[in-house]
Amino acid sequence: MTMKRLKYLLLLPVFFTALMGKAQVYSLSQCIEHAWTTHPQIKSLEQGNSISIEQLDQLKAAAQPSLAFNASQNMNTGRSIDPFTYQFTNETIFSNNFGLNASVTLFAGFKYARSKEQQAILIEANNENVAKIKNDLALSIANQYLQVILYKQQIVALDSQMLQTQRQYEREQKLFDAGKSNQNKVMQLKAQALNEEIRKTDLILFHDNALTNLKYAAAFDTKEFDIVVPDIEPVLKSLGDYTFETVYAEAEKNMATVKYAKANEAYY
Description:
Blueprint: H1 3-10, H2 12-20, E1 24-26, H3 28-38, H4 40-62, E2 66-76, E3 80-81, E4 88-89, E5 93-103, H5 111-177, H6 183-217, E6 225-227, H7 233-239, H8 244-254, H9 256-267
Parallel strand pairs: 1-6
Antiparallel strand pairs: 2-5, 3-4
Helix pairs in contact: 1-5, 3-5, 4-5, 5-6, 5-9
């Protein structure tokens, strides 16, 4: 591998960064929020839950007392029967009718109470199901997001190693030219640089594939897409001290999957 080729390879990160600089960058929270708002299953469940809420309102209304008022007016002209005297008359007669109806369900075999309770549990189960899907989707996106960050960090680390290898190669070549080193050391450094070149090509490919997978998982249709690499030190400091038991207890209490299972159990 010539030095010209090696220097060109070392400029790849700069070129790569310049290209990605045109891309819209997204944070992890933005990726998750975008996926939540566009996921077809989530949208379908939320629409279904809206219908269930309307049905619950209808059940509540059906169990309430009802009151109806009606009124009518009649006019008879010419020869007709007076509705009050039942005698024929040629006068114009006006008559008004008023009605008031009221009804209340005293007992229906607990029909409305049970239906309302079941419908309320169904709504809760649907809510927990939406939360479960959102949680699963967020975990999947977070995993892919971290994978992209890992490749980015590996590329940066490899860039540093390649610069070091280049310096060692140049130094060893000068020593060889001065007769103070042997060709074997020079060839070893050239082979190392070639391996690092191949490794970097692979890492860039892996990075691009991981970035593409993340873009589709988060339902973005932009052509240029990249992510924000966050500073994790403040996050790690804010976590505090957690044991396996405390983490498990929090997950058991708050995980949407557990809540959804409990809601389903209550419904059936």
